[in-house]
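Bit of a strange request maybe. I'm writing a small parser for structure token strings and I need a real example to test against, not something I typed by hand. Could someone generate the tokens for this chain?
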Amino acid sequence: MNDFTHLDDKGKINMVDVGAKTVSHRTATARCIVHLPAEVLSKLSGGDIQTKKGSVFQTAIIAGIMAAKKTGDLIPLCHPLGLEHCNVHISMNGQNELVIDCTASITAKTGIEMEALVGASIAALTVYDMCKALSHDIVIKETKLIEKTGGKHDFKRA
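Reply from user aminoacidic:
Good idea to test on real output. This should exercise your parser:
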């Protein structure tokens, strides 16, 4: 029954006890892909989109970092963590898409991948919010963990 870490042996929800875990340096990188329609792409200039609200990419970067810091408040069973580092990077690929990467790190008893996933997700939602006046055809296509290190198991997406 207990394949899920957030369920006890009776199937009841609980927060994972990390008290006995070993402290290690942990990093995680998550990615969101955002498809931008032509109406939004036409506003891309100098590696960013400027709106009446300001720089889209710079605002999304700040929002992603702020969200990563609040992950424990947003995801019910996540441990509140004090991030040691968080970076959000936004670039274009060759398919009219933004690639939003969020990398977070900490030295702690529990992992940081949820913080990276939340950071990338909120950065993507911020792009949507700031550009929706141009088009509602913006699509946040995927959100995924790219890699994590530290703890019991490392992971790297092929």
